[in-house]
Amino acid sequence: MVVASSLNRLRQRTSKKALQTGAFFVSAFWLLLSPAVWAQCPLLPGGFDAEVVHVYDGDTVRLKSGQRVRLIGIDTPEVGHDGRPDQPGAREAGRWLERRVKGQQVYLLPGAERHDRYGRLLAHLYWRDELIAEKMLQQGLGFALAVGANTRLANCLFSAETPARVASEGVWQRAPRTAMEIDKPGFALVIGRISRITQTRTGYYIDLDDHLALFLPEKLGVDHARMQVGDRIEARGWVQDRLQRQNRLSHGQQRWLLRITADQHLQAN
Q: How many other C-beta atoms lie within 10 A of the C-beta of residue 91?
């Protein structure tokens, strides 16, 4: 463990006071980022108990009742289907979740939006009073998300990413990607420099590196009004291929589009 090894090295350095002091502050910094001392997301009322009988992947389970549940607040790498390979980290996330909750009684707190387009229940899942998404994010097993009206614990979950992100663990070994690397649909966390901003009646199109367009709805644009061409920003969400829906691109239109759905999904970098 990073904290333990840092403290051990600190104890061994007795000859140089300056080095001891520097090592102490480094150790203290890492201690603050340790999941063991990170603020815990609260257990909220209004849910129900159930038994998990199957784990599909890192963010979807099935209950004894037959109901499928999609965890709120986290997106884990996709398990491959129809001949497609797994995304890096998909099996690790699924195995972690399976070890923790399969065959266990859990507590489920449905979201304000209760179901997705696939009929899955959208819910926060707790095991022994621990929010499972929070624990997974702390270990780098997925990325935090805020989608639709299900943002009740969003700030807590985005904060939970910090230990793994700083340590480059799990999904953070390969993220963020540059905007220029985007070449297929799917979830992505990207960084890029603003090359153009186009205002429309419903929001703003923000081009990154003349390759990827972000769409920022007007209701979110107020909080990001100071953005300008040349700024470096980070965004996350699902990338769409416009050529799957239209025959050709308009002049200056980027092929790849990522729609921003929450304030937390767009940050200065």
A: 15
Residue with tokens 């050709």: 248
If one looks up domain 176-268 in CATH, what number appears? Answer: 2.40.50.140
**pLDDT digit string (tens) for 223-253?**
677 899 999 999 999 999 999 999 999 998 9
| Confidence (pLDDT) at 239 | 98
- Using the Cα atoms of residue 226, residue 228, residue 234 and residue 239 in order, give the sign of their dihedral: positive
- Domain ranges for the chain, please list them: 2-33, 48-171, 176-268
Three-class SS state of 261: coil
SS3 of residue 133 by DSSP: helix
Among 95, 100, 90, 234, smallest CA distance to 170 is for 90
Q: Which fold has domain 48-171?
A: OB fold (Dihydrolipoamide Acetyltransferase, E2P) (2.40.50)
CA distances from 136 to 50, 141, 217 (A): 20, 5, 30
- Spell out the residues 6+ positions from residue 145 whose beta carbon is closer than 8 angstroms to its own: 73, 74, 75, 157, 236, 262, 265
